[in-house]
Design a protein that fits this description.
Layout: E1 8-13, H1 23-31, H2 37-45, H3 47-56, E2 59-64, H4 77-87, E3 94-96, H5 107-118, E4 123-125, H6 127-130, H7 145-156, E5 161-164, H8 182-189, E6 195-198, H9 205-217, E7 221-224, H10 233-236, E8 247-248, H11 251-256
Parallel strand pairs: 1-2, 2-3, 4-5, 5-6, 6-7, 7-8
Helix pairs in contact: 2-3
């Protein structure tokens, strides 16, 4: 594979031990036509193998995703711990993302602990797998106070926060929580928060329109186009050049061929 002309970063990479997930999740994961069990197993066991691939593809560093989704996926805080430990040997290349249960009364304390022990400097939330509305911290949306404190923590510490939008194919996922419109509240209520919308609402086209509107309205919002097939990017975002300076992507996903 030819190297890219300049170094790149990838802000959205999943390295998930499949022994942490439910059997039905594992079956879906392994059924993907691009899944290579031997390669993936080697990457999970050995972060050095992943760094070798980064060198091969001329990728400078990557974000490694973690989140807490016991009910849907099967993993809890042990997954956040795994990602933190996995990244520790290569801190300049592998950047662990931290996460919490948005209902956890000790959520911000846990974030500070992960930040202190593993150097985490980015937060990931996955409403479709964690089963919550991103604006449910508001009283009229349920008053989920720990979630509001997570946003406050990220804003106060200058920590970017990525939120999944769009659908999921895993059996227990609830796709109603993938509607990005709730993130408009988050952007308005936390104007200094660096809020990253993952996947641009893919594959629902009017959700992509919603993401674009939120970005144009709120200058603190960024778009992570991971999971969008490169050939279809302009179908989802025909005016993406208007917000180009706030678009981040997953070149590894593109290079590796995942769902391209």
């Amino acid at each position: 594979m030819a190297k890219l002309p300049t170094k790149v970063i990838d802000v959205h990479v999943h390295i998930t031990p499949l022994d942490m997930v439910y059997d039905e999740v594992r079956k879906v994961w392994m059924s993907d036509k691009y899944y290579d069990h031997e390669l993936y197993s080697a990457l999970v066991r050995n972060p050095g193998k992943l760094v070798e691939l980064l060198d091969q593809w001329d990728v400078e560093w990557i974000n490694l995703i973690s989140y807490v989704a016991k009910e849907v996926m099967g993993f809890g805080y042990e997954f956040v711990e795994f990602v933190g430990k996995y990244s520790r040997e290569y801190p300049d290349r592998l950047k662990p993302m931290m996460s919490v249960d948005p209902r956890d009364l000790q959520a911000t304390e846990k974030l500070e602990d992960f930040r202190s022990r593993y150097g985490c400097s980015w937060i990931k939330l996955h409403p479709v797998h964690q089963l919550f509305k991103p604006n449910s911290y508001r009283e009229e949306e349920g008053g989920l106070k720990p979630l509001g404190r997570v946003y406050e923590y990220a804003e106060a510490n200058g920590i970017p926060l990525t939120v999944h939008t769009g659908t999921s194919i895993f059996p227990r996922a609830r796709n109603k929580y993938g509607d990005p419109l709730a993130l408009d509240d988050v952007a308005v209520d936390f104007p200094r928060l660096k809020l990253v919308i993952a996947h641009g609402g893919r594959p629902i086209s009017h959700w992509a329109d919603t993401c674009f509107f939120i970005m144009r309205r709120n200058k603190n919002v960024y778009l992570d186009i991971s999971g969008i097939p490169p050939k279809r990017l302009l179908n989802y975002f025909p005016r993406i050049d208007e917000v180009g300076e706030r678009v981040v992507s997953d070149p590894i996903g593109t290079l590796w061929g995942w769902r391209a």
